[in-house]
Specification:
alpha+beta, four-stranded antiparallel beta sheet, 3 helices, elongated
Length: 121
């Protein structure tokens, strides 16, 4: 089994509903997102997937999030924009656009340098 990953970043604002604490107030983060894919075979070039292709996939998704108020996006009307739910959103969107034979293993989203959330199935 092979695994590769890429990292991208985006900036967004959000607030957490039904939460008592500082995060219930509007605030922002400079998020880092890591996407990890796995597969059991390589292409003719000896690659699972070209890093640039994987970066394009993640960029398509984070462009929807970058410099937005996450709470205004339809998905986050129904799901609080916590790091956990942001990771799941990115995971679900990535699975839709990855080519056949490539399995999305997990999404890791860093809210700060010290804390992250992951989503995987």
């Amino acid at each position: 089994m092979y695994r590769i990953g890429v990292k991208q970043s985006f900036s967004s604002a959000h607030f957490i509903k039904d939460y008592k604490g500082k995060c219930e107030n509007l605030h922002g983060h400079n998020y880092k997102v890591e996407a990890f894919v796995i597969g059991d075979s390589l292409d003719k070039a000896g690659m699972l997937i070209d890093f640039s292709e994987l970066k394009k996939c993640i960029k398509i998704i984070i462009e929807k999030l970058d410099h937005t108020l996450l709470n205004d996006l339809e998905y986050f009307n129904k799901n609080n924009p916590s790091s956990e739910n942001i990771a799941k959103f990115i995971y679900d969107e990535m699975r839709k656009i990855l080519k056949d034979g490539i399995t999305l293993e997990r999404i890791r989203i860093w809210e700060t340098e010290e804390q992250y959330a992951e989503y995987f199935e």
